[in-house]
Amino acid sequence: MCGIYGTLSLYGERDPKVSVISDRTAILKHRGPDDYGHFVDSYIYLGHRRLSIIDLEGGKQPIFNEDRSICGIFNGEIYNFQDLRNELMSLGHIFRTKSDTEVIIHSYEEWGNNCVNKFRGMFAFAIWDSKNRKLLLARDRLGIKPLFYAVLNGVLYFASEMKAILQHSYFPREIDPDGLTSYFSLSYIPAPLSIFKHIRKLLPGHTMEIKGGQIKINKYWDINFHPDRSKSESYFIEGFMDLLEEAVSLRMISDVPLGAFLSGGIDSGLIVALMSRHSSLPINTYCIGFGGNIGGYLDEREYAKQVASRYEAIHNEQLIVPSLHGVIGDIVRSFDEPFADSSTIPSYYLSKMTREKVTVALSGLGGDELFGGYERYLGFKLSSFYNRLPWFAREKFIKGIVEKIPERTDGHYTINHLKRFVRSASLPQDVRYLGFSSMLSKERKKSLFSDPGAYRNGFSHCEGLLLDYFNADNAEDPLDRVFYCDMKTYLPEDILACTDRMSMRHSLEVRVPFLDHKLVEFCATIPHEMKIRCWNKKYILKKAALDVLPKKVVTHRKQGFVGPMTRWLQTDLKPYVLNTLSDKNLNKHGILNPDTVKTILDEHFNRIEINDKLIWTMVMFQNWYDLYIEENSPIIS
């Protein structure tokens, strides 16, 4: 795992700043503390920070082909690199190292831009073809690894994190209204948008070719949902378990110590169980618990211990308390744009603890997207039955009663989910999905900003982006459309972005077997009624897990990898929230309407409505604004 950064002069003129720069990757050192390398010619600068995982001695980057006409830098892992290496050697290619990076170089040499179709892994890379004066950028199929780019004054910039681009003092930090409204709608910013008007994210499963000043973006992979209802449950269980075990074994290839995140849920439990089959030594497992006023939060550490005990793992735990001094700034600087998934907090501490003993960790991330593990998936499925009731009963009677129910005192989401359900369940399917996904109601969109008109188009742009995915031809069944939409938006730019930034902040590589693209393609053939059956989410996954995990681990109520933020905001963190969202701080930018902010806080504190996600979104935005706009950080020159 590494960090990459580069610049390319689009029109044949070298960026004059490049000639005097020896290292522009220092700002990415956390992504690769072990080594540094760069390449400069008349057109391009390529810089690399290395976290050594494979071929510790020989894998220094940039790496070249035999005549040094092709040069590449790479962030990620190619898990089938050994097979590709053998194939390329049989075709006459000569290798100097045993690294997967060199496999990328020779694969490009052999198959051109189509080389991406050969790779099984997570990656973001850049290849400079000096003979053709062509740059190829690529991002992996699911978006496990990030890649940002920008064009300014005839120069293309690209990097693993935006801070490498923003380090240039001349680079504008103009806020993109579309990115801002997307953030307040979703708590993250979906690709290709970013918070900055001049910076974009390369979409997952896409390449970018730059030649002769022309930029061409091409989609090389997509997921298509074709449920095969001719197959039995046992067929899908057997096929899934075989592919998951293969994915796990491939991700255990490492020249450094590795371990596993173990939350107490099914997904991470399966990863640990399968890792134990392929390791002669006990697996190191890592788990987080929560302290402070946690209300009705379910602590899953006991279930994690049961899995660790069954597979004789070396289990490690840490308790998080709601004292976030210094941590919030660190989290904000890890993303460079506002990001408000509260799972950043446990992810931050989990990665920090894990990195103290190992360099690589396997994660169960992705199981919820593949098998329908989120509450909104169940809500979407149940809404089709709910809509069989008469309109008057739904909109006037049931909705009226539910809206008056106070939120639970223990902070649990039961009532809140019910409210969100009745507000959106009767809408058309695509708009219903938006209602279940967005934090903002139509009324709140009108009042959240001090100048609503300035952001009206931004809301429409965000909604259009999600609706385009929902209404695409990649799925026919409505629930499969929801799965597809989340895999193109929420998964890469929220869940995977959180995992990448928090792990790399601590120089830890995280591998995600559930998101092996062959496994993902297989799961897209499983009918959604086998994923969610009646009220039972992840039905077929639970059946598969019963053979390898303790029954209580499989059947207990899912908590999810988030902290007890609802209660923390009402108790331990309340003074911090009130100070951060004070009129004085809000007036620094004048973007948010102070009266609406007060209403949102009052609703949450008085149990009228759980607004924890929206409050945290505002808190993280204020912290980001202070650091990146007010203080203009990070800047090196």
What does this molecule look like?
The radius of gyration is 24 Å and the shape is globular. The chain contains 27 helices and 19 strands. A 6-stranded antiparallel β-sheet has the order 2-3-1-9-8-10. It has 2 domains: 2-219, Aminohydrolase, N-terminal nucleophile (Ntn) domain (Glutamine Phosphoribosylpyrophosphate, subunit 1, domain 1), CATH 3.60.20; 223-560, Rossmann fold, CATH 3.40.50. It has 637 residues and is α+β, with helices and mostly antiparallel strands.
Write the SSE topology.
Blueprint: E1 2-9, E2 35-40, E3 44-50, E4 63-64, E5 70-78, H1 81-90, H2 100-111, E6 121-129, E7 134-139, E8 148-152, E9 155-159, H3 163-166, H4 177-186, E10 199-201, E11 206-211, E12 214-219, H5 233-250, E13 258-261, H6 266-277, E14 284-290, H7 301-310, E15 314-320, H8 327-335, H9 344-355, E16 360-362, H10 367-371, H11 375-386, H12 391-403, H13 414-424, H14 429-437, H15 442-447, H16 456-470, H17 478-488, H18 490-505, E17 509-511, H19 517-523, H20 528-531, E18 532-533, E19 536-537, H21 539-545, H22 551-555, H23 565-570, H24 574-580, H25 583-586, H26 594-605, H27 612-630
Parallel strand pairs: 13-14, 13-16, 14-15, 16-17
Antiparallel strand pairs: 1-3, 1-9, 2-3, 4-5, 5-6, 6-7, 7-11, 8-9, 8-10, 11-12, 18-19
Helix pairs in contact: 1-2, 4-16, 5-19, 5-21, 8-27, 9-18, 12-13, 13-14, 14-16, 16-17, 17-18
